[in-house]
Design a protein that fits this description.
By secondary structure, the chain is of the alpha/beta class. It is built from seven helices and eight strands; from the N terminus they run αβαββββααβαβαβα.
């Protein structure tokens, strides 16, 4: 696809993805947004599919010599995804595990902040939503965390994914639903006319009024 591909905003991306995901309506899928940016998109998709909305919290494990470079990822489950770069740079497992512990502490605080219910992906159709994916560390970490809970099916939906990263993701999910896979990829924001920041307050509010599966009382939020 052309690198000139451009979306108006996350709402447009979510609505276009919703059309591609329509076959899952009626299956009560669990729709997991990756905070922050993907959460408004996940809400639109969850509501459109009559699914359940939640967030999946993932943190990158940074390289010791360059904090912007991810060499792994970890979720609240404690399952660590070690990326090939960790082996390329010969980063010891001891560092990976110690850094993962620090990132988990941050994740626990975020979970409490957002008052998130426990994830239960077992035997469910799970749709992980991201606005855009460049290197894929966070998205791959989310997939890794969900797979550990043995879902019936896992789908990753995103507005735009770098071509090389899309190839990696397809090997790990049942289905990748994406609007564009450009070969040239600088940053996610370049594919959106409006890529406004999503705040913690916005996430808290939308999770509080999340779409509930049929018969689930509001008091269980």
């Amino acid at each position: 696809m052309s690198t000139r591909f451009r979306l108006k905003d996350r709402t447009e991306a979510a609505n276009q993805l919703l059309k591609k995901l329509s076959k899952f309506k009626g299956q009560c899928p669990l729709v997991l947004g990756i905070p922050r940016g993907a959460m408004p998109m996940a809400q639109i998709i969850a509501n459109g599919l009559n699914g359940e909305l939640n967030a999946i919290l993932i943190r990158k494990i940074p390289a010791p010599f360059f904090k912007e470079l991810a060499v792994g990822a970890v979720g609240l489950s404690g399952h660590i995804l070690k990326l090939p770069l960790a082996m390329v740079y010969e980063i010891p497992d001891s560092y990976i595990h110690e850094e993962a512990k620090r990132q988990i502490q941050i994740l626990r605080k975020r979970k409490e902040q957002f008052n998130l219910p426990e994830l239960n992906c077992k035997d469910r159709t799970v749709i992980v939503v991201d606005d855009g994916i460049a290197t894929g560390a966070t998205a791959l970490g989310a997939i890794h965390d969900v797979m550990a809970q043995k879902p019936a099916k896992i789908i990753l939906a995103a507005g735009v994914v770098a071509r090389s990263t899309a190839d990696q993701i397809r090997k790990r999910v049942d289905e990748l639903v994406v609007l564009a896979e450009p070969e040239e990829f600088g940053s996610v924001s370049e594919f959106f006319s409006d890529f406004s920041e999503v705040t913690d307050e916005q996430i808290f509010k939308l999770l509080k009024r999340q779409s509930l599966p049929p018969g689930l009382p509001e008091s269980s939020i």
